[in-house]
Amino acid sequence: MNPSLKKPRESVDLLNESTASPFPDEVLEKVLSLVQSHKDRNSASLVCKDWYNAERWTRTKLFIGNCYSVSPDIVARRFPKIKSVTLKGKPRFSDFNLVPENWGADIQAWLDVFAKVYPFLEELRLKRMTVSDESLEFLAKSFHGFKALSLLSCDGFSTDGIKSIATYCKRLTELDIQENGMDDIAGSWLSCFPDDFASLEVLNFASLNSEISFDALERLVSRCKSLRVLKVNKNINLDQLQRLLVRAPQLMELGTGSFHQELTSRQYAQVESAFSNCKHLHTLSGLWEATSLYLPVLYAACSSLTFLNLSYATIGSGELSKLLAHCQNLRRLWVLDTVEDKGLEAVGTSCPLLEELRVFPADPFDQDIAHGVTESGFVAVSAGCPKLQYVLYFCRQMTNAAVATIVRNCPDFTHFRLCIMNPGQPDYLTNEPMDEAFGAVVKTCTKLQRLSVSGLLTDQTFEYIGKYAKNLETLSVAFAGSSDWGMQCVLDGCSKLRKLEIRDCPFGNAALLSGLDKYESMRCLWMSACNVTMNGCRLLAKEMPRLNVEVIKDEDSDDYADKVYVYRSVAGPRRDAPPFVKTL
Questions:
Q1: Using CA atoms, how far apart are residues 279 and 282, in angstroms rounded to an integer?
Q2: Predicted confidence band at 1 (pLDDT cuts at 50, 70, 90)?
Q3: Buried-exposed string 383-407: b where 16+ CB fall within 10 A, e elsewhere
Q4: Residue 191: per-residue pLDDT
């Protein structure tokens, strides 16, 4: 929870009121208006009463990492001039279907308050929130200067709601729709933009499945001369993409449609020419059904790319190797494991500036899969990419020695997310637990902020984490640990921990209650399929009344708490909890 979102009276009492600011109010407000970092502004608000008030009046952007950590009314009283809001709702494990439907996080209560207090609201960025078509219509009609809407992993709405945004938001500059659980009824929403509408700078509908009106899209792209981000869905073919690129050569980020189409030699040359004229392109994604036949049309645009997202392109090592030979300036790369270790060797050879790598499974549920990546590919990347700082790596086998080599090659990791897909998988060469692998990570990578562990792990891993991971902020654990001692080590040792996510581990009440001094400084704790009981949760709620302790019960008769969600809130228990959520 942000320190600056404490109740106003409570926050002021915490300040040293005897300390007056040496700056005149107008000077202080001018300086603070230039500070963009949320963390820096939060810190500034706690210096003294003058700084608190100056920060309050100059803040225009707000980030809330948990929509139940504060109420809309408290926000409205604290900050009178907000123009941009970023709001997150459900716990992250909702991405894995661990949070039931109708859990909550509805945006409407926030919009009701914002419409009264912030009629000048310009931007709304939502993640894992429930958004109805009625809410989108309300949004479109209530904020006449509204400019930017981003919906990521949200649910509850359909393309009818998007129609309202297109129809009524006359000054819209950004419409970003990503990975939502929405009803994709039809693509006619693109025709709802007024004929004189020309302000769009960002348009992303890559995750929608329905056919869209290409004529409406082409007209829209032609009118919007400031369009810099365009990500279309897989129903746009190569010929159509070429027509869009001719009308928008200024694009900086492009998400293509399908790369599988029969082209004449003339059409091929036109597509190739269109890409070569995109001189400012630095991000490329999409490439559905890409094949070696048409990937070469990209080569002319590759030299300026810093981010290449191939997570929808089931290409092999050969195609990737040829493509990366033209991408020497890549900083970020996302691929599927169809590239295999040979493809990752090409990454190590061709991308010396790489800072982020994500390798996703093409089919995570196929245990007999013939392709995939191993520790060999990971080691090859680390040998050629010493600047690597962020990795998300799905694989089916790993060794302690390989991980030790990887972090020795790349000691500057801030995010290390290793996902060995078979739960409880040991080092496949020695049959030993993977404790020393993650011990090497936390000992070597002193800047580590986020860690996801997997494989066969004992409490030794968590002892290493508590002892060495002093900058760790987020820890995700699944199918790991031996006893309560493991979780206790983490809670005792990781002083900067903000998010702890645990599933299918043997941690029980003693582990849960060992964090009494910790939870108020954290954003949240999630525990599911562990050994925590209802009595343990009740004791935590009794000892820490400023925490919301929520239990999602799968069976009423079971004394075990199936899913536990703990977070601090200045608003108290939420009022919209469904019957299956028990707030203790």
A1: 9
A2: very low
A3: ebbeebbbbbbbbbbbbbbbbbbbb
A4: 94
pLDDT for 114-138, tens place per residue?
999 999 999 999 999 999 999 999 9
Q: Is the dihedral of CA 33, 36, 42, 47 positive or negative?
A: negative
**In 10 A of CB 533, how many CB atoms?**
16
Q: Are 404 and 379 in contact (CB under 8 A)?
A: no
Quote the tokens at residue 498: 């903000």
Beta strands in 42-194 (DSSP E): 61-64, 84-88, 123-127, 148-152, 155-158, 174-178, 181-183
Mean residue pLDDT across the chain: 91
Q: Within 10 A of 534 (CB to CB), how many other CB atoms are there? A: 18
As a whole-number percent, the residues of the chain with pLDDT over 90 amount to 81
Three-class SS state of 82: coil
Q: Name the phi and psi angles at 48, rounded to 5.
A: -165, 175
DSSP symbols for 361-419? -S-TT-TT-S----HHHHHHHHHH-TT--EEEEEES---HHHHHHHHHH-TT-SEEEEE
Percent of all residues in the chain with a pLDDT value above 70, rounded to a whole number: 93
> What does the alpha-carbon distance between residue 142 and residue 493 come to, in Å, rounded to a whole number?
48
Task: Tell me the three state secondary structure of residue 250.
Answer: coil
Phi, psi values for residue 274, rounded to 5°: -60, -40
Backbone dihedral region for residue 130 (phi beyond 0: left; psi -120 to 50: alpha; all else: beta): beta
CA distance 512 to 509: 5
Q: Which of 473, 534, 530, 468 is nearest to 505 (CA)?
A: 530
Question: What is the pLDDT at residue 22?
Answer: 66
The count of C-alpha atoms lying within 13 angstroms of the C-alpha of 236, restricted to the half-sphere facing its C-beta, is 29
